[in-house]
Amino acid sequence: MKILVLNGPNLNMLGIREPKIYGKNSFADLLALLDQTAREAGVEIRQYQSNHEGSLVDAIQDAYGKFDGIVINPGAYTHTSVAILDALKAVSIPAVEVHISDVDAREPFRQVSYAGMACVKTIKGQGLEGYRQAILFLKDYLNK
Ligand code: DQA
């Protein structure tokens, strides 16, 4: 089983960016957690981070026929990008949306998720652990 983990803008700044909201762990810590989860769950994980909307759309399109599932934290594009929503719908690969913070408890503009409309589940407010939960959920979902 192959899972693509996509991270959008500013997630490469984890540990530096607003640590009270996103925590003190770095992006490298997140990559280590993904590796560990892949080993534990017996799934193959590829990850890609970009600060550019079109690059994320390209990565979703490239996943067609190659990946069984997608875990995506689109960052701020969550709340603005119909293009990412349409790309997820176009490939029809089961996707889980992750947010490190509890977006529903923040500003009203963070409470709308376009990408989430194409996802089978949303995990929010669990910190980096949310990525592990998303991968385990997706593994179960794809096995059913
Ligand atoms: C985020 C929440 C978004 O509102 C924000 O723009 C991010 C990160 C999260 O993981 O909590 O960049 O997706």
What would your notes on this structure say?
The chain has 144 residues and is α/β, with parallel strands linked by helices. It has a single domain (2-143), classed as Rossmann fold, CATH 3.40.50. The chain has 5 helices and 5 strands; from the N terminus they run E-H-H-E-H-E-H-E-E-H. It has a 5-stranded parallel beta sheet with strand order 2-1-3-4-5, with helices on both faces. Strand 3 (69-73), helix 4 (82-91) and strand 4 form a beta-alpha-beta unit. Helix 2 packs parallel to helix 5 and helix 3 (53-62) packs parallel to helix 4. The two termini are 13 Å apart. The structure holds 1,3,4-trihydroxy-5-OXO-cyclohexanecarboxylic acid. Residues 10, 73, 75-76, 78, 99-101, 103, 110 line the site of 1,3,4-trihydroxy-5-OXO-cyclohexanecarboxylic acid (DQA).
Task: Itemize the secondary structure elements and their pairings.
Elements: E1 2-7, H1 19-22, H2 27-41, E2 44-49, H3 53-62, E3 69-73, H4 82-91, E4 95-99, E5 121-124, H5 129-143
Parallel strand pairs: 1-2, 1-3, 3-4, 4-5
The chain binds 1,3,4-trihydroxy-5-OXO-cyclohexanecarboxylic acid.
CATH architecture classification name: 3-Layer(aba) Sandwich
For the sheet with most strands, the description reads: 5 strands, parallel
Distance between the termini: 13 Å
The unique ligands bound to this protein are: 1,3,4-trihydroxy-5-OXO-cyclohexanecarboxylic acid
- What overall geometry do the principal axes of the alpha carbons give? globular
Low-confidence runs (pLDDT<50, min 5 residues)?
none
How much β-strand is present in the residues? 15-25%
The CATH superfamily is known as Dehydroquinase, class II
* Helix fraction by DSSP (H/I, runs of at least 4): 25-40%
CATH topology: Rossmann fold
For the biggest β-sheet, the strand order reads 2-1-3-4-5
What structural class results from the helix and strand content?
A: alpha/beta
Write the H/E string, N to C: EHHEHEHEEH
Averaging pLDDT over every residue, what do you get? 98
Number of domains: 1
The Rg value, from CA coordinates, equals 14 Å
